[in-house]
UniProtKB/TrEMBL annotation:
Protein name: ABC transporter permease
Residue ranges of the TM segments: 21-42, 102-130, 142-164, 170-190, 226-249, 269-290
Keyword field: Cell membrane, Membrane, Transmembrane, Transmembrane helix, Transport
Family to which the UniProt record says this protein belongs: Belongs to the binding-protein-dependent transport system permease family.
Taxonomic lineage: Bacteria, Pseudomonadati, Pseudomonadota, Alphaproteobacteria, Sneathiellales
One Pfam family, short name: BPD_transp_1
Segment forming the signal sequence: none
Localization in the cell: Cell membrane
Domain ABC transmembrane type-1: 100-293
Bilayer topology annotation: Multi-pass membrane protein
Length: 304
């Protein structure tokens, strides 16, 4: 019998076993072990070739130690990434162009602007699709078709066209980010606006509610959970769009620029550290949207 069934207070081990902490820690430890083993496997060929050329006697322990401390490894060890993060986040001023905080802020600014543009566009399109049959038949296929074009193919064209119109800097990157993130918002919002069933709509009609009343007092509240689910997906995609947008622009600032510079000069540790920062940034953005969802639903009287 469990502690809950017997009425006794669960032990610390019981709470760890039944909660999420132990499974998450177990998965993280497994990933770290596999990562270290993968670093030895991936870097060993180059190291062994170096040993043979320099006619150096070596043992497996030397191979493991050198694999985890290479200057330009194929797969860096986790502690090398942590050292790089320490050097570029803690030891550098946030205004320095060698600081990952500085580059993360550049990417975050275009991400948030693109997310705002995408949210506005997605909601406007969804409202139009739900209320205008012509838009439903003509616009929806184009909305879906827009996502079949690879962003890496269309991003340079967007940069060139907007540059010809005099738009440079933050706005082109935000528009590429918007291009990716408006789609889930449109789809989610359309589903949410159409979620009220026929009985609820008939009830509103018996109260002589106008179309405006049905929209604001029935459709919009019903669509909020769908909207926030879409926003969680959209904000993560928006970050990806902002990073991708920095690649064809030849940007020297932003996480995308760090990835590009790292690939040019074979600095895999720099690439991985930028990826870690981008991952943390994405998790923070999704968490922030989740907090906003809880506060909104709680304010509306629903379950958060």
């Amino acid at each position: 019998m469990t502690d809950q069934q017997t009425g006794t207070k669960p032990s610390h081990w019981g709470r760890l076993y039944n909660g999420q902490i132990l499974p998450v820690v177990t998965v993280i430890l497994a990933i770290i072990v596999i990562w270290y083993a993968g670093a030895v496997y991936m870097n060993s060929e180059r190291l062994i070739d170096g040993y043979e050329r320099s006619k150096t006697d070596w043992e497996f322990s030397d191979l493991v130690e050198d694999s985890w401390s290479m200057e330009r490894p194929i797969l860096p060890a986790p502690q090398q990434i942590i050292e790089e993060l320490d050097n570029t986040i803690i030891d550098k001023k946030i205004t320095s162009k060698r600081s990952l905080v500085f580059h993360a802020w550049i990417t975050l600014s275009s991400t948030l602007l693109g997310f705002a543009f995408g949210t506005l566009l997605g909601i406007v399109l969804a409202v139009g699709i739900v209320h205008v049959k012509t838009l439903d038949r003509s616009l929806m296929p184009w909305v879906i078709a827009s996502q079949t074009i690879p962003i890496l193919a269309i991003a340079p064209m967007i940069i060139v066209v907007l540059g010809h119109l005099g738009l440079t800097g933050l706005v082109p990157k935000a528009i590429i980010s918007m291009y990716l993130c408006f789609f889930p918002i449109t789809i989610g919002m359309v589903k949410g606006l159409r979620s009220p069933d026929i009985l609820q709509l008939d009830l509103m009609k018996t109260y002589s509610a106008s179309n405006n009343d049905v929209f604001w007092k029935l459709r919009i509240p019903a669509s909020i959970p769908y909207l926030f689910t879409s926003l969680k997906v959209a904000v993560a995609i928006s970050l990806v769009g902002a990073i991708v947008a920095e690649l064809p622009t030849g940007a020297v600032q932003g996480l995308g620029a760090r990835l590009l510079a790292g690939s040019y000069y074979g600095q895999t540790i720099q690439i991985w550290s930028a990826l870690v920062v981008a991952s943390v940034l994405g998790m923070v953005l999704v968490w922030a949207v989740g907090i906003a969802e809880k506060l909104t639903l709680r304010r509306m009287g629903g379950q958060s």
